[in-house]
Every structure is written in structure tokens, then in C-alpha cells.
Design brief:
By secondary structure, the chain is of the alpha/beta class. Helix content is about 30%, strand content about 15%. It contains five helices and four strands; from the N terminus they run αββαβααβα. The protein has a two-stranded parallel ribbon with strand order 1-2. A two-stranded parallel ribbon has the order 3-4.
């Protein structure tokens, strides 16, 4: 997300990230590196070969070009699958859960909502901290 945030700050309205490896990106998901909160522009990952063709055209054609992206989501059953990953230190995530709970009863036939609460281990914490602050011994 750092790349996307930097591009947004520079005035971009869309970011295309080119995969650096030759691989099938059909099921690859761009993850948040912890800096994604507040980003307002869309971003997408494209394969290395397609990305290099796009890059070469942009650098060498000498012509202005416009890139249009369409984000199509498959929903064969007309139900949107929605996941929210958050942790106790994500105040916006907690606020969203609280506010969204008001609307969810009316949306249950249209949305399959799965909140995921992220936890992590604390191998370097003292025994006292683990006993007072942690689940499952840190």
C-alpha cells in the first residue's frame, strides 16, 4: 500500500502494480502493508508480461495514453462476499463494525459479511505482561 499511497499523494487516480515475477496472478491478492488506511484510489495488480508491455508503451510511444480499468466482481448468487480484517489497535475498523451493525439486518440477503479479528503472538513480552494482557500466554 505504500506504493499506492505515494502515487495518490502525487496525484494519481489509479495505480497499476506490475508483478515482478512470472506467475499466474489470478488468485494473488494485493495485501495491505499496514499503511492502507485512508487510501481513496483503486489499485490493481497485473502480470509481469502485460505490465512490461504497458510500461514500454508508456515510455516509448511518444503518444498520450489513457488507461481505463473496470473492476468486475463475480457474484453468481447475487450475494457479495465481504471480509473485514481488523485488530484492537484499528480504531476505524472498530468504528465500522459498530456503525455497520445497524445496517446489517437489512442486508443479510445481499451480503455475506465475515469480520476477522487479527491477533498476534508476543514472544518477547514478560510473563507479567502476558498474564495481565494476553490470551493464551501471549
Amino acid at each position: 500500500m505504500t506504493k499506492v499511497r505515494n502515487a495518490e499523494r502525487a496525484g494519481a487516480s489509479l495505480v497499476v502494480v506490475i508483478d515482478s515475477r512470472v506467475e499466474n496472478i489470478t488468485n494473488v491478492v494485493m495485501g495491505d502493508d499496514g499503511t492502507g488506511t485512508g487510501i481513496r484510489i483503486p489499485s490493481m495488480l497485473i502480470g509481469r508480461d502485460s505490465g512490461y508491455k504497458l510500461r514500454e508503451y508508456a515510455l516509448n510511444s511518444g503518444k498520450p495514453a489513457t488507461l481505463q480499468a473496470e473492476f468486475v466482481m463475480r457474484a453468481p448468487d447475487n450475494v457479495v462476499e465481504m471480509e473485514l480484517w481488523y485488530s484492537s489497535n484499528n480504531v476505524l475498523g472498530l468504528d465500522f463494525i459498530k456503525e455497520f451493525s445497524r445496517f446489517m439486518p437489512r442486508l443479510t440477503t445481499y451480503i455475506d459479511f465475515k469480520p476477522h479479528f487479527v491477533t498476534w503472538g508476543c514472544p518477547s513480552c514478560s510473563s507479567e505482561v502476558k498474564e495481565n494482557e494476553c490470551f493464551g500466554n501471549g
